[in-house]
Task: inverse folding
């Protein structure tokens, strides 16, 4: 049976520890590691003292069931700390408390804080009151009755009150005397100290309680300033670190952060079906910066955008830039599941949720990424302002499905020298994709060919099935998100230009414009980054 509670952590950095170093470690390593365990933690909230007292910082994690904190899933996080975490936490006075939930009351207006946007959540007020029962057989019972029968109800009349919760010393703290902590959530503008609050804290029963049954051992007021997601995203504090000491790589090699030349975070999320999806976040470090995300083609990685991103970041420094790898690039879920455009669109949504990005300013995708971009616009319109979909079709054909099956066979058939057949597929794919002019650029050919050849073979088998048997034409008129279509003039020897000309008028009520990039094929942003920029710069 679930026994919900909280992990309550107070922190006071030593004077010699730069706050940006403290925050960057906590926001990009410590907190997200815990939020990657949704079976344990439903949220993670950071608060700063609003009462001038120390400790200055507080973190509160809601725990689904307190006994889970005694399992290896949680205890290994502390036992296997990174050297950076061990070094940093050695400069912080940390006190950890486990509390079991006893009572809870909330306003009809209350929303779980992790469901709010950062703008909505930041600045919410938390009042934390610790009570120690006085000696007596019924002190514990009287405190609980007072909260449940009177005090929470009285506090609910205070303007801006959102929620009150009462916790007691956790059963994990075996042999410890029972103590209580009450956490009261208030809106940014509230009536703390006002008439209703005074009335709630000065009733005859309240006075009797403190006279006979309880001692207030602590009362603190905090302001919320950061809400964790499962993905590391704090470019701001990372951007403040000295370049020479900013680089960090997690022990598992899956998270990398640096401020060498510019702030970059490379990490991962875990999808609802258990698949790891890597991502890269860079660009404007302002947490409120608009975000542009990029979807790759099948068989490529997020690095297919490298050359274009160099131009885009220089021309549009106001943007935060998000890239990620499709499912199937590195692995597939277990048990194996074929990709669909719906699943791929939902993966983007999961990534945005983990990074607490409520809405993209733009989504740019090519090939399978172009189809995914349109599907995302259709399925998650509230999360997107506009999109650019490149070199794709809105429906598959039987011939196309058969071609993908043939390509799977090539990838899975070893070469004569025993090497993987996907190397042969890589050469064929690049020749099919690229314009004849691009095939003369040896470095570009080798760059993409190597990228294709390094795709996981089983991942390709299941990933390419997203391009089988799909048809978005019946939905296209419903698209409420404005978009731009882009195609390389030589894609499919010009056949895809005709196809996209044919469906551009079917997107949304007014259709979409189509930009054609000269002397490029299936990946214009790789073949001619400057030419692709000219095609999209007016839209971004």
Result:
């Amino acid at each position: 049976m679930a026994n919900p509670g909280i992990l309550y952590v107070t922190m006071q950095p030593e004077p010699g520890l730069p706050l940006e170093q403290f925050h960057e470690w906590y926001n990009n390593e410590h907190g997200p590691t815990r939020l990657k365990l949704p079976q344990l933690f439903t949220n993670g909230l950071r608060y700063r003292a609003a009462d001038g007292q120390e400790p200055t910082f507080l973190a509160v994690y809601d725990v689904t069931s307190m006994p889970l904190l005694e399992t290896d899933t949680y205890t290994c996080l502390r036992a296997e700390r990174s050297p950076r975490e061990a070094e940093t936490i050695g400069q912080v006075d940390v006190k950890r408390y486990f509390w079991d939930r006893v009572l809870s009351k909330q306003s009809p207006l209350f929303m779980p804080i992790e469901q709010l946007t950062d703008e909505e959540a930041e600045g919410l007020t938390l009042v934390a009151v610790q009570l120690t029962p006085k000696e007596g057989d019924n002190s514990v019972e009287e405190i609980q009755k007072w909260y449940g029968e009177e005090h929470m109800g009285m506090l609910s009349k205070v303007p801006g009150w959102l929620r009150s919760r009462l916790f007691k010393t956790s059963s994990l703290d075996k042999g410890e005397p029972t103590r209580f902590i009450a956490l009261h959530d208030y809106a940014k503008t509230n009536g703390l100290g006002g008439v209703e609050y005074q009335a709630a804290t000065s009733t005859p029963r309240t006075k009797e309680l403190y006279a006979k049954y309880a001692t207030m051992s602590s009362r603190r007021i905090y302001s919320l300033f950061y809400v964790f997601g499962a993905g590391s995203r704090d470019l701001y504090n990372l951007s403040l670190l000295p370049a020479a000491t900013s680089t960090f790589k997690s022990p598992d090699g899956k998270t990398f952060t640096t401020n060498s030349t510019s702030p970059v975070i490379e990490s991962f999320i875990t999808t609802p079906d258990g698949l790891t999806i890597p991502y890269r976040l860079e660009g404007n470090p302002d947490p409120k910066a608009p975000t542009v995300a990029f979807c790759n083609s099948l068989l490529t990685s997020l690095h297919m955008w490298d050359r274009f991103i160099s131009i885009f970041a220089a021309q549009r420094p106001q943007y935060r830039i998000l890239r990620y790898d499709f499912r199937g690039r590195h692995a597939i879920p277990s048990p194996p599941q074929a990709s669909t455009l719906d699943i791929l669109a939902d993966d983007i949504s999961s990534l945005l949720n983990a990074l607490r990005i409520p809405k993209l300013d733009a989504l740019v995708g090519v090939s399978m990424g172009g189809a995914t971009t349109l599907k995302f616009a259709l399925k998650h319109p509230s999360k997107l302002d506009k999109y650019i979909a490149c070199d794709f079709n809105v429906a598959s054909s039987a011939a196309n499905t058969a071609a993908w099956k043939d390509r799977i066979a090539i990838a899975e058939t070893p070469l004569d020298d025993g090497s993987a057949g996907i190397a042969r597929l890589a050469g064929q794919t690049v020749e099919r994709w690229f314009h004849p002019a691009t095939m003369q650029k040896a470095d570009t050919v080798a760059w993409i060919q190597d990228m294709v050849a390094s795709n996981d073979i089983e991942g390709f088998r299941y990933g390419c099935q997203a391009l089988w048997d799909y048809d978005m034409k019946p939905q296209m008129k419903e698209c409420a998100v404005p978009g731009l279509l882009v195609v390389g003039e030589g894609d499919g020897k010009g056949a895809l230009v005709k196809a996209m000309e044919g469906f551009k008028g079917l997107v949304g009520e007014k259709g979409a414009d189509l930009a054609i990039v000269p002397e490029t094929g299936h990946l214009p942003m790789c073949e001619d980054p400057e030419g692709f920029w000219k095609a999209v710069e007016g839209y971004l």
